[in-house]
Amino acid sequence: MRSLPQADPGTPDIRTPTRYLLWTARRQAGALAVGISFAILWWFAQALMPFVLGKGIDAVTGKHTDDLMTWSAVLFGLGLVQAYAGIMRHRMAVYNWLAAAYRTVQVTTRQATRLGATLPKRLSTGEVVSVGNSDIAHIGNSMDILLRGVGSVVAIVTVTVILISTSLELGLMVLVGVPLMAIAVGPLLKPLHKRQQAHRELQGELSTRAADIVAGLRVLRGIGGEEVFADRYREESQRVRHAGVRVAGVESMLEGAQILLPGVLIAIVTGIGASFAVDGQITTGQLVAFYGYAVFLIGPMRTLTEAADKLTKGHVAARRVVRILSIEPEVSGGEESSHGGLLHDAESGVTVRPGTLTALAGGTPEDAIAIADRLGRYSEGEVSFGGTDLGTLPLAEVRSRVLVADNNARLFAGRLRDELDVRGEASAEAVRQALHAACAEDIVEALPDGLDAHVAEAGREFSGGQQQRLRLARALVADPEVLILVEPTSAVDAHSEARIAERLAKARAGRTTLVCTTSPLVLDRTDHVIYVEDGRVRAEGAHRDLLATEPAYAATVTRGED
């Protein structure tokens, strides 16, 4: 088996499902051409067999031994050709299926990486997951069926030519009957298309619901909401089932048409051919050949209707892929450069001084999050970095120099060491120091394999506080030029929070750090505090000074307590 193609050097700018399928076909045009050639040879060998069989029967009835031996040898040779071509056709079909499916995975994954924070704002988790669950299979099937579909057209043309050369009436009957049967199944394709689209959308919504339930399972159990969400999931699951039944209803009619219509054509051709044989217009061998052709035509005809079905499903699947590819990132970058320095947000007035541990205390959590997003270039804003507009810097450079770590960040499946050191460049000592600063050493010590332990998807084996400490350790291992932490201690106990605050100040000494928090334990350890209310800076200074001079700040930080 040939190796699969390497990743394509870019995300295609494609706006319609048809163009996406054509783009996919062009990317593997060579493999498709080879596969179609083998498919044509495979069908052609089968198409000639009734003709050779008829010649052999005529040799028997005419008692021509030499002709019988010749046609028997030809029939044996056709069998060998058919066997070899069938094997190679199937191999190329599998290759083309995999190439199309995984090329779709490549472009959607690349687009998801390109979109970053934009993707979850525009699409639900279920819609993205459905691409990998089912859509890639349908897109692969649409490439696979091209091989047999083109070959079946060649086979039908070959049989028609042979029939016309033998009997004009029967040949014309097949020539007219085949297009009529193809037209007859046409009305089934549009409702099938619509029902498949509705089914896909419901599947995506159900996948989103399942992901939300799994992610919040601990919370649901804590508030006793399992039954409520289970009932909702059950209701949505039934809607998906009913939609699938509606799709199956049209598909069953299509499958029935694949048997009924060719069967009617076979009966007509065989009946008329038998009357011609009785009248002496054709020989016995030709009658057997005509019957063989009529039976053989079931295969190509079913392949054509199957091609219509799979291409329709591929078109529906490609629509979801195109929807993802058509999304543009909310933010983009330029080509300027910056030596770093002050990080300033003009909208709020927040200025993060280089080399200091700064705290941002917001009157509401939304204020701090919005500012952090602008400072990290996750949303548009008038932000400067060392006097240079942050929007003019290359986005990759911004991501490498300014790291925003919030509680929506996820832990992925894999080895814990790789999870903490995502670039694979940190030393063992750097990882140890990060774990110490995040008070996460006990988490690693409790694991049987330590840092080599396998982490489950989303870090399900860890509690909320443990996950938060591991995320903080990961951010510290990255050691960015500017680190922005959003509520890094909201899920830990007060004792651990005090230790993290003390150690964080030492770990980031001399590095630019902004902590969005209202925790007094953390605020007391920072060099400078900025208080924001209604999206604007209201006060700045040391934590204890602000407590004494700013009543609004004191009320926010102490939660109204003395």
From TrEMBL:
Chain segments annotated as transmembrane: 29-48, 68-87, 145-164, 170-189, 259-278, 284-304
Pfam families named among the record's database cross-references: ABC_membrane (PF00664), ABC_tran (PF00005)
ABC transmembrane type-1 domain span: 33-313
Keyword Membrane part of the UniProt annotation: yes
Domain ABC transporter span(s) in chain numbering: 322-559
Membrane topology: Multi-pass membrane protein
Subcellular location, record wording: Cell membrane
Main location: membrane
Molecular function (Gene Ontology), one example: ATP binding
The entry's keywords: ATP-binding, Membrane, Nucleotide-binding, Transmembrane, Transmembrane helix
Designated name of the protein: ABC transporter ATP-binding protein
Organism of provenance: Nonomuraea recticatena
